[in-house]
Amino acid sequence: MEKAEKDNKQKKASRKSVIYFIGCFVVAFGLTWLLREPGFSDSQVYALFLLFFAVSLWITEAIPPFAVGIFILAYLTYTFGNPLLNSDPEPVDKYVNTFSSRVIWLLLGGFFLGSALAKTRLDEKLLRFTLHHSGTNPRNIVIALMFTTMVASMLMSGTATTAMIVAAIMPLLNKLGKSGLSKALLLGIALASCTGGMGTIIGASSNAMAAGILENADIKVSFLSWMIYGIPVALTLTTVSCWVLLKVFVKNTEPISLDFLHEIDEKEEKLESPFQQKIVLGVLILTILLWLTSAWHGITVAAVAAIPLVILTLTGILNSSDIKALPWDTLFLVAGGLSLGAALQSTHILDPYVQQLRTMELNSFVLLLILSFAANILANLMSNAATVMILIPLGMTLLTGLEKEVAIAVALASSTAVFLPISTTANAIVYSTELLEQKDFRIGGFLIGLLGPVLAVLWVLLIG
């Protein structure tokens, strides 16, 4: 009976995906037919269709996001380089070679480090250290967990960080129930995982995507320079949101018992491997130091990323099962997104529409602010990667001379989309605890959604 019910659900899901896929194709074809300019070449028409089709697939999730990335690579190869379909075929190497971009290798190095931190339980050790030193004051616990989450999310995915921290404090959450403190903790963790992701190129896929788009335009952003742009924004937003959550939810300052930590400590001490932890910690420090100082020693960040890849597998800390479990789908998504961005730039299909926007005669600050708020709104409804793929090429064409500022501001603003339980995976994780209501997300959503884009634009322009 259960098997039959499961089969029916799968069939319904399959039919729904097929209907969505066909619908996306029809919508993309119709929009391309309506919006194409008379003088468009075959490549420009193909690129315009791909833009609409890929974005609609990302929005509807008719197929997995990474599958859209693979489709983009195949589509561009087949349509741009095929003399039977294109009156002016061109070499397609630059659309396929995005998978060897330095951004991909930088992300891969981050994935290896994140996996090693989790496997050796160094991430949990950091969490326990934080809780042990935060004391029993509820306010201090919220502050400690939010800033621990923020720091961890700069090196690990926000999803993994949120899942790890929520799982570790579940005994405390079960004890608190639906209280103000539990809401402050859960909302704070979800918000900090998103703001923390702004801090480094590897903190969020949208950051890597933005860096890759800039690289395609011969504008390089180093690991350190991104941190200079991202960390002050992340730190400010985390601090402000922490202060607001404490004001709204934490009225009682009576000490909280952290007895559950002793049980966790006893279990974890038996499972931990101090020698492996020392190796991972050494690799982590060495890799980050070399990433930060790449401008001084001349070793590229992509080459530095080989350090965790080689040492962590050579020492057996990560085995074949761990490598298979890495989020390879994210790499396909980013590579496909970079290929789409390269196609939009090389075909210049956005130029005619940008000229129409320029007739509005808005100054650069206002346009950058509009793009950043648009990133926030769209990222609440679709993936951050899809959002930056739409807005960054448009903004770079519109604001000539401010390409770096556009890409970084839009990427940072896309991480401020936290208004709905489904806006981010971190939100979905904390919402699944059933200790939050949908309306609880509005506080952080409005706060970060309004302050974040403005702060990102002001800081990026100031530094730029």
UniProtKB/TrEMBL annotation:
The keyword Endoplasmic reticulum does not apply. Signal peptide: none annotated. It is found in: Membrane. Residues 57-400 form the Citrate transporter-like domain. The chain crosses the membrane at residues 18-35, 47-76, 103-122, 142-173, 185-206, 226-246, 275-293, 325-345, 365-394, 406-431, 443-463. It is a multi-pass membrane protein. InterPro entries: Cit_transptr-like_dom, SLC13A/DASS. Keywords: Membrane, Transmembrane, Transmembrane helix, Transport. The keyword Transmembrane helix applies. This is SLC13 family permease. It comes from Adhaeribacter terreus.
